[in-house]
Amino acid sequence: MPVTVEELVKFIDHTRLKPETKRAKILELCEEALTYEFAAVCINSVHVEYAAELLRDSDVEVCVVVGFPLGAMLTEAKAFEAREAVRKGATEVDMVINVGALGDENYDFVRQDIEAVVNAADGAIVKVILETGLLIDDQKRQACILSKEAGAQFVKTSTGFGPMGATPYDVRLMRETVGPKIGVKAAGGIRTFKDALRMIDAGANRLGTSSGVAIVEGYRWAGYSDAWLQPDKPCWTCPSRQASLAKQPKEVYLWYKARCVTCPHRDQNIFND
Amino acid sequence: MPDESEQLFSETRLLWISLTKKTTKIQPLDSTDIRQFLGGRGLGVKLVYDHVSPEISPASPQNLLVFAVGPLTATSAPTAGRFVVITKSPLTGTIFDSHAGGYFGPQLRRAGFAALVLEGRADSPVYLWINDGDVEFRSAKDIWGFEVSETTDALLSETDPKAQVACIGPAGENQANLAAIMTDKHRAAGRGGVGAVMGGKNLKAVVVKGTRGVAVADEEMLQATVTRTRRLIKKDSITNKSLPVYGTSVLVNLGNEYGILPTHNFQEGTFNDAEGVSGEKLLERFFVKRYHCFGCPIGCGRISQVQGREIGGPEYETLWALGPECGINDLEWISIANDRCNELGLDTISMGSTLGCAMELVEKGFLKAQLHFGETAGVLELIEGAAKGQGLGKELGEGSRLLATRYNAPELAMQVKGLELPAYDPRGVQGHALAYATSNRGGCHLRAYLIGPEILGSPVLVDRDRTEGKPELVVLFQNLSAAMDSLVLCRFTTFAFSVSDYADLASAATGLSITNKELLQIGDRIWNLERLFNLREGFTAKDDCLPPRFSKPLPEGGSRNRISHLAEMLPEYYNLRGWDENGNPTKTLLKQLNLA
């Protein structure tokens, strides 16, 4: 097996970001994080004090999302949310980049937006969510460079609320862009241990998932057969396969689909796989 | 000081019952058998292997009918309320285990028994009344001919309303090969004609009430494991969402999308009106409440209201068999037909599939009858006839293999080793195809449910079209399933549990320190003993096959142009099993498994 169960749990940010989340679910999330010894819990800022209390004196980090899930609010609002979250116990902050400004190529604004959160986080780890499903490859690379310049410690693929989840393709692209010293967090649509291993193989060193327990429990099956880890059809994990005109801007959607035209694996793209 | 078997399988015995002599004999369990076979299916297989030789036909009074529970039955372990019936099947001629949920199993365990072993034949209809340790033979003359609900109500009234009943309907009385044993009115040990064996013994029902406590070897470990495994069931989206909300019929739309929903007797893999017979539609139109078997946190069972009457089900396989398989899109009619099968004590999968076979025989001109795909006219009468041995229905009641052979078109029977295939076209799921072909009880989806990884992505999605690696997965699931059936737990727990969870439950129940490897070896042992039984009966590697239809591509849908690649997988399967090229277990293997 590529990693042990004990190693795998340390990749996982055990996540619950749904708007309907009640305190009981935060309690469950934190208890599971303690039981499985996950790297962090990832929650909305309203729950930060409660989670910090539950996880006090443990190795589990408290990660709070900021400017979530759109990233389109005032920079001051993001900075304020980050500052308050850290003051109330967050040790990590996952902020959403301003996608619109990135599309406008207003890179100074994007960089300053991130810097404001990094400064407000006061030493806490900051991860910048790119929302890759709204971006083409050049924009993803640019976003990685801006995040690095702004002092963020991680770049992260997706919110889980956007048009596309994490793909090994994007993780690999981000890793190649930021280099080995910056973290890459894959998030969105990671539901099984096979998804998790693909992301790790592509270069991720954190995984944001609400299926942490299922991933770890499922991984116990891996020792019984190599068949679980056989390579999939290439299209299964390709972002172009996930592209959706209903969810993405037309030009982004068409950019993804244009890749299929020249793809050597095109024949394997069977619609119902 | 209690003996070892007492500790391994607490407070339980074997109850041997001679229906011919109307005598009973209580025997302690053999501790070696428990170590090697756990209980349930494994224990029953051992008993049938030891006592039912090839000369004994399934219909013979000498054939054994074993009702068994496991060392976890009636404990707090999730889904530990099932029981299993083991016998030589009149439908397949193989050794056969048929399982049911409900509440009968826990009563049997609480009455102090790990298994009832029924032999002989009563000279007139009887039922058994087991009240804790006491066994009484009672006349069933007055209820012979009753349907299942009527039988159940009458027997509870005669005995104790808190007892549980496992009975046959008219189908079992008439020894139809498709006869089931029913419990709680609509839960069925459905497959393989186990009801016919019971009917052949002139045994209408077993009524049991048990009030004893059930102890396990390591209560503390059991409680810790139960807490953990219940949480896993709650965390899994299939066991916590799909199955509780839609029941098993959640699979209709999914199977249709993948093009593996057999339609018109497996001639196609998609059904135009699938949405109309789906779990979603059942929820909208007829759902009343969920049904939980004993100790089950999932609650996949359905209680529906149709034409003002509350009925059990229908389940996915039934919806398919009486619906798309026959081209029928009337959900209300399917529900009624399901209820008729339950009341008559018929296996809905085999009944529906045999009806589909008959419809194709008519379509292709082999059989002349007013029976057509998509039409319900006359079908309920045929179901009635199958149970009561009347007219064309009687021929259907023998199963599709005999029916199609009788009309000179054996290739139109969608069966393996005589057992009708269930609701997944094997052309779209290569691992599942191998599981069908190699199943010891014939065409069965539950010996190794590869639909989990190949379609549902549980525990992970594997490429359904690949053949590489599938033999290994089939062997793994076959062995695990055999062990699980011996603990007697529900197959749906595999969506949430892994091997170590079952090993921990088994260890807690028996006090043995069972490792994951040892648990799988127990399953392997059971699988091989079943294989030995079947070989002794004359089955060969040639019987590990699929109907010729599956070598021709599906014409349309999500699995179009696909065929089964069984021949590519079988040699590796035999090799992984430790069998020779003819499918015979080697001496070395049998020695390793203590079967030599």
Counting helices, strands and paired strands, the structural category of chain B is alpha+beta
Percent of residues of chain B in beta strands? Answer: 5-15%
**Please, what is the average pLDDT of chain A?**
95
Instruction: State the share of residues found in helices of chain A, binned by percent.
Output: 40-55%
**DSSP strand count of chain A:** 8
What sort of overall outline of chain B do the alpha carbons produce when their principal axes are compared? globular
How is the largest sheet of chain B built, in terms of strand order?
2-1-6-3-4-5
Number of helical runs of chain B? 24
* Order of adjacent strands in the largest pleated sheet of chain A: 1-2-3-4-5-6-7-8
Radius of gyration of chain A: 18 Å
Distance between the termini of chain A: 26 Å
Profile the largest sheet of chain A.
8 strands, parallel, barrel
Which spans of chain B of ≥5 residues are poorly predicted at pLDDT below 50? none
Quaternary status: heterodimer
H/E topology pattern of chain A: HEHEHEHEHHEHEHEHEHHH
Describe the structure.
The complex is a heterodimer of chains A (273) and B (596). Chain A is of the alpha/beta class. Chain A contains 12 helices and 8 strands. Chain A has an 8-stranded parallel β-barrel, surrounded by 7 helices. In chain A, helix 2 links the parallel strand 1 and strand 2. The relative contact order of chain A is 0.12. Chain B is α+β, with helices and mostly antiparallel strands. Chain B is 40% helix and 14% strand. In chain B, a hairpin with a 6-residue loop joins strand 4 and strand 5. In chain B, helix 3 runs parallel beside helix 22, helix 14 packs parallel to helix 17 and helix 18 packs across helix 20. Chain B is globular. The mean pLDDT of chain B is 95. At the A-B interface, helix 9 and helix 10 of A face helix 20 of B.
